[in-house]
Amino acid sequence: xxxxxxxxxxxxxxxxxxxxxxxxxxxxxxxxxxxxxxxxxxxxxxxxxxxxxxxxxxxxxxxxxxxxxxxxxxxxxxxxxxxxx
Length: 85
Prior knowledge:
Largest sheet: none
Distance between the termini: 38 Å
Radius of gyration: 21 Å
Order of helices and strands: HHH
Number of helices: 3
Helix content: 55-70%
Strand content: under 5%
Number of domains: 2
Shape: rod-shaped
Protein backbone atom coordinates (compact mmCIF):
# COMPACT_ATOMS: atom_id res chain seq x y z
CA UNK A 1 0.00 0.00 0.00
CA UNK A 2 2.88 2.37 0.74
CA UNK A 3 4.18 1.85 -2.77
CA UNK A 4 0.79 2.83 -4.14
CA UNK A 5 0.92 6.11 -2.21
CA UNK A 6 4.41 6.75 -3.60
CA UNK A 7 3.22 5.93 -7.12
CA UNK A 8 0.36 8.37 -6.75
CA UNK A 9 2.49 11.20 -5.38
CA UNK A 10 5.31 10.85 -7.90
CA UNK A 11 2.86 10.27 -10.73
CA UNK A 12 0.94 13.44 -9.89
CA UNK A 13 4.14 15.45 -9.65
CA UNK A 14 5.41 14.08 -12.96
CA UNK A 15 2.07 14.61 -14.68
CA UNK A 16 1.86 18.23 -13.56
CA UNK A 17 5.44 18.89 -14.70
CA UNK A 18 4.65 17.26 -18.04
CA UNK A 19 1.49 19.35 -18.31
CA UNK A 20 3.57 22.52 -17.93
CA UNK A 21 5.74 21.51 -20.88
CA UNK A 22 2.81 20.87 -23.20
CA UNK A 23 0.80 23.96 -24.06
CA UNK A 24 -2.97 23.65 -24.01
CA UNK A 25 -3.12 20.51 -21.86
CA UNK A 26 -5.25 20.88 -18.75
CA UNK A 27 -3.95 19.64 -15.43
CA UNK A 28 -7.10 17.55 -15.00
CA UNK A 29 -6.32 15.60 -18.14
CA UNK A 30 -2.73 15.03 -17.03
CA UNK A 31 -3.92 13.82 -13.61
CA UNK A 32 -6.39 11.49 -15.33
CA UNK A 33 -3.39 9.43 -16.48
CA UNK A 34 -2.25 9.15 -12.87
CA UNK A 35 -5.70 7.94 -11.87
CA UNK A 36 -5.61 5.29 -14.61
CA UNK A 37 -2.19 4.09 -13.41
CA UNK A 38 -3.34 3.89 -9.78
CA UNK A 39 -6.48 1.97 -10.75
CA UNK A 40 -4.38 -0.45 -12.80
CA UNK A 41 -2.05 -0.97 -9.83
CA UNK A 42 -5.04 -1.63 -7.56
CA UNK A 43 -6.33 -4.18 -10.06
CA UNK A 44 -3.01 -5.99 -10.10
CA UNK A 45 -2.84 -6.03 -6.30
CA UNK A 46 -6.40 -7.32 -6.00
CA UNK A 47 -5.86 -10.12 -8.51
CA UNK A 48 -2.63 -11.15 -6.80
CA UNK A 49 -4.35 -11.45 -3.44
CA UNK A 50 -7.01 -13.72 -4.92
CA UNK A 51 -4.75 -16.03 -6.95
CA UNK A 52 -1.51 -16.18 -4.97
CA UNK A 53 -1.46 -19.38 -2.89
CA UNK A 54 1.40 -18.10 -0.73
CA UNK A 55 -0.75 -15.22 0.50
CA UNK A 56 -3.57 -17.62 1.31
CA UNK A 57 -1.11 -19.82 3.20
CA UNK A 58 0.17 -16.81 5.16
CA UNK A 59 -3.39 -15.92 6.11
CA UNK A 60 -4.04 -19.46 7.35
CA UNK A 61 -0.71 -19.50 9.18
CA UNK A 62 -1.62 -16.28 11.00
CA UNK A 63 -4.95 -17.80 12.02
CA UNK A 64 -3.22 -20.86 13.44
CA UNK A 65 -0.57 -18.88 15.26
CA UNK A 66 -3.15 -16.56 16.79
CA UNK A 67 -5.13 -19.57 18.00
CA UNK A 68 -8.28 -18.88 16.02
CA UNK A 69 -8.06 -21.99 13.87
CA UNK A 70 -6.74 -25.06 15.70
CA UNK A 71 -7.54 -27.54 12.99
CA UNK A 72 -5.84 -29.12 10.06
CA UNK A 73 -4.97 -26.30 7.72
CA UNK A 74 -5.64 -27.07 4.08
CA UNK A 75 -3.79 -24.76 1.75
CA UNK A 76 -2.00 -25.26 -1.54
CA UNK A 77 1.31 -23.99 -0.30
CA UNK A 78 3.79 -25.65 1.97
CA UNK A 79 4.19 -25.90 4.96
CA UNK A 80 1.01 -27.34 6.43
CA UNK A 81 0.55 -26.69 10.13
CA UNK A 82 -1.60 -28.86 12.30
CA UNK A 83 -3.13 -27.84 15.57
CA UNK A 84 -3.57 -30.14 18.55
CA UNK A 85 -5.66 -33.17 17.64
